[in-house]
Write a structure and sequence with these properties.
This protein is α+β, with helices and mostly antiparallel strands. Helix content is 33%, strand content 23%. It contains 24 helices and 35 strands.
Length: 876
């Protein structure tokens, strides 16, 4: 028997059908090991030794694979045909070797670019050995990303409170977004005018623009104001024009190449509005296959590629289809062959294309995203092998009788649509529309000017990046790899370094601070050229032209020294540097000659960048006398968040005391009255994050000061239930039991029935930190531990709970859609759940199956034994 190992169960199911008897196809479910998220997983002092930890959810699957191999004589690693796929195969092989199940087994590696019967069978007939050069490229990349992240992030936490993380490629992508924003802020708008006319010459009217005035060719800014434009209008009105020249040039529009990962992400963003993540998830489903008439078939080739090559057989099929559907004139004389333009492009893989051109979109029963993305891929691929579109470019030049004033009309007409019959590429922000068809006119014909229209324009700054244009920029610079773009953009959003507005990336002040910090103190490592050069070196490792350990040693020597140099640097020195670097942004020139850093609240204070445990902010040098603060950023953006010291809100109708908004060491708060003696402490309440200072009026302040609020009495013992705001957020309390509320406003809204239910759920949950969340959905019992699995409504969002394990739901998953299978995967990823009665003696026939790690976990009383037995740590 032969055991075939792939990544996904969908892929396993399909391939199993193709191979039939004699084969067992099992899935690893992706990567089975990774570097533990703790310091020391990569050790430069030990020549970059790496500690790998077996993923909790992979243990059982690996055991199943090992059991199947014991009764086989051949093992085939059939993971995806890229560096990640090679790495997955290597990891699986390493684990199986440690399990000692591969002795005297024949180990082979196969790859196929499409999940079709012919592709799979051809791959099985041509096996090879594991490509260690690809594996070493993966190891180098993984080590670099780990070392940068685990070196830079702690420095950020210590020197720039509020910053969350930094990464080798993530930080450079953020810098691209920030640099574009700086361009926009520095941009100076200029006014300019154009003059358009409606002209005819024994013909229907057509549009012509003024291009020459007083015998001189007009530049873009040669008519800078209304006066100049109106003077040009009057000149045109008093001139007699003649058709001076008619130039007609035939041209061609060639089709774009078939999709790569990058161009697919860009075009899906332009035309379908898909994020990079959504595009790749949908493409994965198309690659793994759908059911067509009872047979599962992969619809597209592998979707992680930067090659534009298409195999000859597929090209011949496309040419045949084009001739049948559109006619011989749409088939070019010879097949088209493309070459990738991107830096570092690896041409080994095919472009993304349908596995069969004859599976037309309209004949498949696809729905939603899969239908839309497949249609896009099909049309682009077919168009890439079609005849060019033929166009006719026409330019009509008109001159005044004194030859001092000139007009020009341009137009383009498609005389043969060619590939445009199927597909037209989307345009970026700078795409220009061509003029339409112009009427037939002859040189020497007198023209009549019917209308003259001066128009005012203003230059515009470069547009902010969309997902499509940012991916395009990363590819142009040679930064990152196509398969990583989706995760890079996702991290920027998840870290709140950027926000999206109308599908555009706008850097948050937190992101600008991180970028400024790295630019000032780790300048080399966020430069575009340096990052691109490192990518080229990683590709040399893939090609076997550079030793991966040598690459790591060369990088680490200087990078480690740069990080060590930050040790003695004080936070005040960092802030002084950032104050200067960010000065034009946070303290822009007011244009009136006053100091932009002058405090607007007091007479002689100066504003500067400061930090607190909550992050950076702008504060006055006269604190605590002056308590003016505002967020980091331009003063124009401070809006409702700026606070300029104490502010009276009104009088409490019950006590007659003044209610005031104040600023303290730990932020804004409201206070009732003033201290009447040294020991008197007026009632105070901190502001919740949900209520910014500028939104606080007397009514809200009194609500805060009224806390804790009595909800009512518990029906069982008549003891009070109160709602309040604590260190961990809004809560209710009864007889020493605390339960969290879902949001701050619920403090004032929660009723007795809801409170009793929350408290009962909290008590039913047993031990744990006060503040249990509400259960949204019961999924059943854990198959191993027997603990109940529930979807809970937590203070920080919904999560899955099983025993003492809590696992946050991914952002794209709603509580209603959570299944037991997904919940188990999330729980296992967090460390799993110890089996009930694990300390009991296992049946004799199963005792041998226990791993040493599991035995330790169930018998030792040392602290380390508390770790779940589901993970194994290995050093390579």
């Amino acid at each position: 028997m032969t055991v075939v190992i792939v990544e996904s169960p969908a892929k396993a199911k399909t391939i199993n059908k193709y191979l039939g008897k004699g084969y067992t196809v099992l899935a690893s479910f992706g990567h089975v090991r990774d570097l533990p998220s703790k310091d020391g997983s990569v050790r430069p002092d030990e020549d970059f030794a790496m500690t790998w930890e077996v993923d909790a959810k992979a243990n059982k699957r690996l055991s199943d694979i090992a059991d199947a191999i014991k009764s086989s004589d051949r093992v085939i690693l059939a993971t995806d045909p890229d560096r990640e796929g090679e790495a997955i195969s290597w990891h699986v092989l390493e684990v199986l070797n440690k399990k000692r199940v591969l002795k005297e087994k024949q180990i082979e590696r196969v790859t196929f670019n499409a999940i079709t019967q012919s592709a799979v069978q051809e791959a099985m007939a041509n096996p090879r050995q594991l490509d260690m050069e690809l594996v070493e490229a993966y190891l180098a990349r993984r080590a670099l990303d780990y070392l940068v992240g685990f070196t830079l992030s702690p420095v950020l936490w210590r020197k720039l409170p509020g910053a969350r993380s930094a990464g080798r490629v993530q930080s450079v992508a953020l810098k691209i977004v920030v640099d574009r924003e700086i361009e926009i802020e520095k941009f100076k708008t200029e006014e300019y005018w154009t003059v358009d006319t409606d002209v005819s010459a024994n013909s229907p009217p057509f549009l012509a623009r003024l291009v020459q005035l007083n015998g001189k060719k007009l530049g873009k800014f040669d008519m800078p104001n209304e006066a100049a434009a109106f003077a040009a209008r009057d000149t045109i009105r008093t001139s007699q024009f003649t058709i001076d020249d008619v130039e007609q040039k035939p041209g061609k529009k060639s089709p774009p190449p078939p999709f790569t990962t990058s161009t697919l992400q860009q075009e899906a963003a332009r035309k379908l509005g898909f994020s990079a993540t959504r595009t790749m998830q949908t493409a994965q489903k198309l690659y793994e296959g759908v059911d067509l008439g009872g047979e599962t078939v992969g619809l597209i080739t592998y979707m992680r590629t930067d090659g534009v090559y298409v195999e000859p057989g597929a090209i011949n099929e496309m040419r045949r289809l084009i001739g049948e559907r559109f006619g011989a004139s749409y088939v070019p004389e010879s097949p088209r062959h493309y070459k990738a333009k991107a830096k570092n492009a690896q041409e080994a893989h095919e472009a993304i294309r349908p596995t069969s051109s004859y599976r037309r979109p309209e004949t498949l029963r696809l729905e939603g995203d899969m239908a839309r993305l497949y249609e896009l891929i099909w049309k682009r691929t077919i168009a890439s092998q079609m005849e060019s579109a033929r166009v006719e470019n026409t330019v009509i030049s008109l001159l005044s009788s004194d030859r001092q004033t000139g007009l020009r009309a341009t137009g383009q007409v498609v005389t043969f649509d060619g590939y445009l019959a199927v597909y037209e590429e989307g345009k970026d922000d700078d795409g220009d529309d061509e003029g339409g068809r112009l009427p037939a006119v002859k040189a020497g014909t007198i023209a009549q000017v019917h209308e003259v229209r001066p128009a005012q324009h203003f230059t515009e700054p470069p547009p902010r990046y969309s997902e499509a244009t940012l991916v395009k920029k990363l590819e142009e610079l040679g930064i990152g790899r196509p398969s990583t773009y989706a995760s890079i953009l996702g991290v920027l959003r998840d870290r709140a370094y950027v926000r999206m507005d109308k599908n555009r990336f706008i850097p948050e002040d937190k992101g600008r601070l991180v970028t400024a910090f790295l630019d000032q103190f780790f300048h080399r490592y966020v430069q575009y050229d340096f990052t691109a050069d490192l990518e080229e070196k990683l590709d040399l490792v893939s090609d076997g032209k550079l030793d991966w350990k040598a690459l790591l040693r060369d990088f680490w020597k200087d990078f480690h020294a740069a990080a060590e140099g930050m040790t003695e640097l004080r936070v005040s020195q960092v802030l002084d540097t950032l104050n200067e670097a960010l000065g034009p942004h946070i303290f822009p020139d007011k244009g009136d000659g006053t100091n932009p850093r002058a405090c607007p609240s007091c007479s002689n204070g100066m504003l500067s960048l400061k930090t607190s445990r909550f992050g950076a902010f702008i504060g006055c040098s006269n604190y605590p006398e002056c308590k003016y603060t505002r967020p980091v950023g331009s003063p124009d953006s401070e809006g409702e968040s700026a606070v300029s010291g104490d502010k009276e809100l009104g009088t409490d109708p019950e006590t007659g005391k003044v209610v005031a908004l104040k600023i303290g060491r730990f932020g804004p708060y409201v206070q009732l009255g003033e201290p009447e003696s040294k020991d008197d402490k007026p009632k105070r309440s901190s502001l919740p994050k949900a209520w910014p200072p500028a939104t606080i009026d007397l009514d809200r302040a009194l609500k805060l000061l009224s806390l804790p609020r009595q909800v009512g009495t518990h029906p069982e013992d008549s003891k009070p239930i109160v709602a309040g705001l604590g260190r961990f957020g809004p809560f209710i309390e009864h007889a020493g039991t605390y339960a969290n509320l879902s949001n701050f406003d619920e403090i004032f809204e929660v009723g007795i029935n809801r409170a009793v239910t929350l408290l009962a759920e909290k008590r039913a949950g047993g031990k744990g930190r006060a503040g249990a969340a509400a259960s949204l959905k019961d999924l059943g019992a854990h198959p191993e531990s027997g603990d109940a699995i529930q979807v809970m409504a937590g203070r920080y969002g919904p999560y899955v709970k099983c025993g003492k394990v809590n696992a946050t739901l991914p952002k794209d998953v709603t509580p209603e859609t959570v299944t037991l299978e997904l919940a188990l995967a999330l729980i296992n990823a967090k460390g799993g759940v110890a089996k009930k009665g694990a300390a009991k003696k296992a049946p004799a026939k199963k005792a041998a199956a226990k791993t040493s790690a599991a035995k330790k976990a169930t018998t030792t009383k040392k602290p380390a034994a508390k770790k779940t037995p589901a993970k194994k740590t290995e050093t390579a």
